[in-house]
Each structure stands twice: as structure tokens, then as C-alpha cells.
């Protein structure tokens, strides 16, 4: 039985949070975990109990966090409106053990749960970085033990949301991203949920293009 549904996104897009909701509804999941520090769960609980406004969450007061976009705010609001349970499960100390802590926090949740996260965390296989990569020295021997690789394989489903024809994302500013010519040539009817069974992911969720969703603090404080 599948328990963990890892939905890998590109931060700073409008499409990815919308797809997250689509997959959650499709799989009849009523629990959503997000890639924000678990030390702020009390704030999230206050919001869910109507004791705090969503814009007053600390995550939306950081002008540099590409995850904390307007689309992310909409995702949290919609999940609450649908009476879902919502959890913050990320390591708040930004350590190299972050994915291990995320996996441990996900295991504490009873029943099916969707974890909406950066695509790297959703990989079911550890990521190996080249010695010349800026990330190589952050992880032991350049290997990132991803959240997806630390969960029970038979209980985990992993998705990677991909843009076939490029588009733009918010990453401190609006940036262009490249598409995938091979996918663009092969798949014309989009969006498409494609079963792939690669070592890293079970599904690609293909969209035409990404459009940017700006950091909420930046949007409100230009």
C-alpha cells in the first residue's frame, strides 16, 4: 500500500502548486506536508484554527525564499478550505541531514500523506554531485541522501513536475528556464501524467510552460 506521495516541483511557479492539488484530489489524500521548518508548525496550527492570517506566517516574511510564493499561499489556503491536515516537516537549521529529518517527520504522520517539495528531495535515489559542483562539498562524498531514498520504497510514489517548453520561474527575479526538445516533440497534448518508472521517479507530470509566481513578501513590498 502506498503511503508517501512525493510531489517534486520547481520553486517559484504557478503551475506546480496547482498540480499538487490535482494529484492530491486524484489520490484521495487528506494530509499535506510542506517544505518549511517544523519549528513553525505552531504558527500553521494557529492559522488552521483561525487564530492567525496566512500572510502573517513567518514563511511569508522572508523575501529570499523562492518556495514562499503567492501560489504557495494559495495552496495553503485551498488545502485549509478543503479541511486537509497540513504539516511543516523540513529541517529549520539547513543542515546536511535535512532530508533525513524530513523523512523522520513524514514517518510520524499516520495514513497517506503528500509531500510537496523541490524535485531533488522527491528523488527515490540518492543524488551524486560532480566534484566541480557547488553542492559537492555540502554532502559527504558529494552524495545527497534524498527524502525519497530514505522512505520505504514499496510505500513511496514519486512525481517530478516538468515543463516541456520551458517558460519562466521566480528565483529572486523572473528567470527563463529551458524546455526539453525530445519531450516537446513526443508529447503534444498537455498537461500529461506520464508513468516512467525511472530509478528516481515513478511519474513525470508534464506541462507546457512554467509561469512565475513571485515571492509573497516581495509582491507585497516591491
Key words describing this protein structure:
globular, 27% helix, 24% strand, two-stranded antiparallel sheet, alpha/beta, 8 helices
Can you give me a brief rundown of this structure?
By secondary structure, the protein is α/β, with parallel strands linked by helices.
Describe this structure in words.
The protein has one domain (4-220): Rossmann fold, CATH 3.40.50. The model has no long low-confidence stretch (mean pLDDT 95). It has helices at 15-26, 41-48, 70-81, 98-107, 119-122, 147-150, 181-186, 216-220; strands at residues 4-9, 31-37, 85-90, 113-118, 127-128, 143-144, 156-163, 167-170, 174-177, 192-195, 203-207. The protein has eight helices and eleven strands. The radius of gyration is 17 Å and the shape is globular. The chain has a seven-stranded mixed beta sheet, sandwiched between helices. Strands 5-6 form a two-stranded antiparallel sheet. A hairpin with a 7-residue loop joins strand 10 (192-195) and strand 11 (203-207). Helix 1 (15-26) packs parallel to helix 3 (70-81). It has 222 residues and is α/β, with parallel strands linked by helices.
Topology readout:
Elements: E1 4-9, H1 15-26, E2 31-37, H2 41-48, H3 70-81, E3 85-90, H4 98-107, E4 113-118, H5 119-122, E5 127-128, E6 143-144, H6 147-150, E7 156-163, E8 167-170, E9 174-177, H7 181-186, E10 192-195, E11 203-207, H8 216-220
Parallel strand pairs: 1-4, 1-7, 2-3, 2-4, 7-11
Antiparallel strand pairs: 5-6, 8-9, 10-11
